[in-house]
Amino acid sequence: MIENIYNKMKEHDFAPFKELKLWIIISPFGGGKESLVQKVIEQFKEKYTVHQVRSEGIKSISYMYDDKRSKLIKQLEASPLLVLVIDNNEERVRNLINPLIKYRKTQGKLTIILSELQRDDFNTFYPDLMKFGLVTQISEDNEYINLKEDVIKKYFS
Fold first, then answer.
1. I need a surface site. Which of 23, 40, 89, 153 has the fewest CB within 10 A?
2. Cβ(58)–Cβ(31) under 8 Å?
3. What pLDDT, in 10s, does the model give residues 5-37?
4. CA distances from 57 to 28, 60, 136, 139 (A)
5. SS3 of residue 115 by DSSP
6. Is the pLDDT of residue 42 over 60?
7. Greater model confidence, 61 or 90
8. Is the whole model's pTM more than 0.85, yes or no?
9. What are the phi and psi torsion angles at 87 (to 5°)?
10. SS3 letters for 48-104?
C-alpha cells in the first residue's frame, strides 16, 4: 500500500502544484516506513523544500516546545503545503492533521493531504474541507480526489 502511494506520487507531477514551496512529511515510527520517507525526500527535494516531522511523541503541534512550534507554524503559514501522512490509524492521523488544519484554515493557503486512510474515513473527518478543495488525498485504491478548478486558479494563478 505504501509503495503504491509512492509510485503514484512519482508518476504524477502534481501539476499545477509546481508552486509548492514546502512539504511536510509526517511518518509514524516503525514498520519500515522510514525508507519510504527517505525515497520521497530524495525524489522531490530538488523541486520542493522538504521538511519532515516525525509523529512519534508529537500528538499535535500544541505539545511542541514553544520555539520549535513557532518555527513550524511560520513554515506552515509560508506557502502552499503538501502533507504526506503515512499512517492508517484514524486517531493518529486525526491528531496529526487537526492542528495543521487549525493553523492553516485562516491563512488562505492550499493544503493537500495524502494519506493511507480510506476515502470514506477521510470524508467523515473533513467533509467541508473536501468540498471546498482545501484537502485532497490518495485513497487506498489510488484514486485522486480532484481539487476544484477555481480553487487551483485562486492559489496558483
1. 153
2. no
3. 455 555 555 544 445 545 555 555 445 556 666
4. 10, 9, 26, 26
5. strand
6. yes
7. 90
8. no
9. -165, 135
10. CEEEEEECCCCCCHHHCCHHHHHHHHHHHHHCCEEEEECCCCHHHHHHHHHHHHHHH
The dotted CATH code for 2-156 is 3.40.50.2300
DSSP SS3 for 112 = strand
Q: Which residue has the higher pLDDT, 22 or 142?
A: 22
Whether the Cβ atoms of residue 92 and residue 60 lie closer than 8 Å to each other? no
Cell 486517531 belongs to residue? 91
Phi-psi map region of 108: left, alpha, beta (phi>0 left; psi -120 to 50 alpha): left
Contacts of 18 (CB under 8 A, 6+ apart): 47
Percent of the residues in the chain that have a pLDDT greater than 90, as a whole number: 0
Supply the angle between the helices 66-78 and 90-104 in degrees, to the nearest 10: 70
Question: Nine-digit cell at 40?
Answer: 520521497
